[in-house]
Design a protein that fits this description.
Blueprint: E1 10-15, H1 19-30, E2 37-42, E3 45-50, E4 61-69, E5 72-80, H2 83-113, H3 119-143, H4 145-160
Antiparallel strand pairs: 1-5, 2-3, 3-4, 4-5
Helix pairs in contact: 1-4, 2-3
């Protein structure tokens, strides 16, 4: 896993199969009814998440990018919250960051020309908002920890299964 300051923990895995075949295999197994996960695929990008019945606001989604290597594939995996929640979080962080930037320069200008420095309050409040968002993300990761482990174990079990050209599992295994 990544370090404690990452908002989106990630890991990488190597596999002997070709990227397209591996993406089809992951999608084929993960989307089976008995798998216990919901899967989507767009090219070599596969997303795995808990089924709707087990999903919460903090439930993780595991995004997989299957890349070509000299021999086989490299799977780059990154956890995130639901895409709608992640978009809202990213937009909020961007908005607060812009407020910090512009209010900070405005407050600096106010300070340099000797005006009242009310803009420092906006800068401090925006920084506090960013800190609250970061802490919220870490709390969400702690709540999602068990599901993150389950998704990782599911991915490991899928990658351990033998591949067939159709993306399914061989019947002799």
């Amino acid at each position: 896993m990544s370090n404690a300051f990452d908002i989106r923990p990630s890991f990488t895995l190597e596999h002997a199969a070709e990227p397209e075949q591996l993406a089809i295999h992951i999608m084929g197994i993960a989307s089976a009814d008995a798998s216990g996960v919901f899967a989507q695929r767009a090219g070599r990008h596969v997303t795995i998440s808990p089924v709707t019945a087990d999903r919460h606001l903090w439930s993780p989604w595991l995004h997989l990018e299957v890349e070509e290597r000299d021999s086989g594939s490299l799977v780059r995996a990154k956890y995130s919250p639901h895409p709608n929640l992640w978009t809202s979080f990213a937009f909020g962080y961007l908005t607060l960051g812009a407020l910090v930037f512009f209010a900070g320069f405005f407050a600096l200008a106010q300070t340099l020309i000797g005006q009242g420095t009310w803009a420092w309050w906006i800068t401090i409040a925006s920084l506090a908002g960013m800190l609250v968002m970061w802490i919220t993300a870490k709390v969400g990761q702690q709540l999602a920890h068990d599901q993150m482990i389950e998704l990782r174990q599911k991915l490991d079990s899928i990658l351990a299964l033998p591949l067939t050209p159709e993306g399914g599992v061989r019947s002799d295994s």
